[in-house]
Each structure stands twice: as C-alpha cells, then as structure tokens.
Design a protein that fits this description.
Length: about 260
C-alpha cells in the first residue's frame, strides 16, 4: 500500500489534527478574519521547511514583503539569512482585476512571475498571501475561478509544491473564503478565528476539511508566543466549561504544544 508523503506544518499538534500533516504537493486554504494569525501560521510552515533545507516561496499579494519579514523578527524568527543563501524567495506581486478579466484562464503572468524569481529551480513550499487579493473587484466569477484553478494546477502538477492559500473572511461571516469557491479547489481548509470570552479575546483554530486524512475537527484555542509562534492549547469547549461560573482568561489554558520551532 502506497502511503501519502506528509509535510509538517511546523506545529506538532496541528500535524496530528490533520492526520499527520499536509499531503505533499497539495494545496490548502487558511481562512480567517483579520488578526486571527493566518500569516504567522504560514510563516511557521515556511520556517519549518527552511530548517529542513527546503526551498520555499512567500508571495505577498497585499503587504510589503519587508514589513512581513520585519514583523516576523518580533517572534524571534530571522528569515534574512535564508534569503541571502538563496533558499527562501519572498517577493510581491500586484495583479489588477482587469488582467484577470482580460486573460482569464490563459493568463500566465502570475505563474511566470514565480518562475522568474526562482529561476525555474524546484520549490518545496509556497505561500500566497492573501489569495483574495488576486482578483478583488473582478465581476465575472468564471474568470476568477478558472484563474485560481490554473494557478493551483500549475503549482501542484508542475512545481509539485505544497501550497498554502491565505484568504480573508469578514468578521462574523460563516463563509470559508472571500469568493466562496476557494475551499472547493483546495485539498484542505483550516479556519482561524477570534472570539470574546469573559472580556478577553480568544483565538481559535480548527480543521474544516482534509481530503484523504483522518482529521480531528475539534475547535482548539491557541496563543501566539515569541520564539514559538502558534501554540495550540485546549479545546474551546473545555475552556467554556471552565469559564462557567468563574472568569477564566486565555492564560489559564493548558499547553498542548509548547516546543520552540
């Protein structure tokens, strides 16, 4: 029996929730509202690859790359040596909605940009952050869907890279993506959120979808800690039970994953 090769997220507890980690060469969606920690999870995933000497790409479709990497330093993560060594390729792409409408499925601008920056070298892990910025403002749903499908197909079939697509969802929304169909193109979906409990904000994370895996769909709480990144703690329901009758803060949650990465 052929076993699917797994790729670590860089978070041991999340690997277990996914049934062993991401499946190598597949594409996954990280969805959540602003401030939920999506970019940090993505950088943690890339850092794990870099520590394993894997070539990685970070494509910023919104924020300046320099700001992202400088922000990572507040967590104790220094990506610059990997950039200088040629193992890490962080860069920015700005594609207007008009280009998506004009070229649709035939557009190769995005793919060619990645090939140019990496000089055609093999890539192990890729992050597109946020994928929703690729076609914001495009009115024709067909073009956006096919454009994203083409990009995902290329990354999986040609690059054979394990890819994370970051997408923003409005606060309070029950949707899993900005356009409503990214989750169908991805092999798995991780949802990150923020909820208020006893006057404090609690971050949550759960696996909504994971093809070909025995996933754990439990909603867990997590913290973002310097030197560790995302630290997954106890289930949210357990926190609610503790808070019944007594005020419980985020700091009262028991660690499930507190190893530095």
């Amino acid at each position: 029996m052929l076993l699917l090769q797994r790729v670590s997220t860089g978070i041991s507890k999340l690997d277990k929730m996914l049934g062993g980690g991401f499946i190598q060469g597949r594409t996954y969606l990280i969805a959540g509202e602003t401030g939920a920690g999506k970019t940090i999870l993505a950088l943690q995933f890339l850092r794990d690859g870099l520590l394993r000497n894997e070539p990685c790409v970070y494509v910023s479709l919104d924020e300046r790359v320099g700001n992202v990497l400088t922000g990572a330093e507040t967590l104790g993560w220094n990506f610059w040596p990997y950039v200088r060594s040629g193992l890490f390729y962080p860069f920015e792409i700005r594609l207007e909605a008009a280009e998506v409408r004009k070229y649709g499925k035939e557009s190769k601008a995005f793919i060619e940009a990645i090939r140019k920056v990496t000089k055609g070298e093999p890539i192990s892990r890729i992050v597109l952050d946020p994928i929703s910025a690729l076609a914001t403002g495009a009115k024709e749903e067909f073009y956006v869907r096919e454009y994203l499908r083409e990009v995902i197909t290329y990354l999986e079939e040609v690059c054979n890279a394990t890819t994370l697509l970051i997408t923003d969802i409005p606060t309070g929304s029950t949707r899993l993506s900005r356009f409503g169909y990214e989750e169908f193109l991805a092999s798995g979906v991780i949802v990150m959120g923020i909820t208020r409990l006893n006057g404090k904000l609690v971050r949550t994370l759960y696996v909504r979808k994971m093809r070909w895996s025995q996933m754990d769909p439990t909603i867990y709480t997590f913290e973002i800690q310097s030197g560790f990144g995302i630290v997954i703690k106890q289930p949210f329901d357990a926190l609610l039970s503790k808070s019944a009758g007594s005020e419980v803060g985020v700091d009262d949650v028991t660690d499930l994953d507190s190893r530095p990465i």
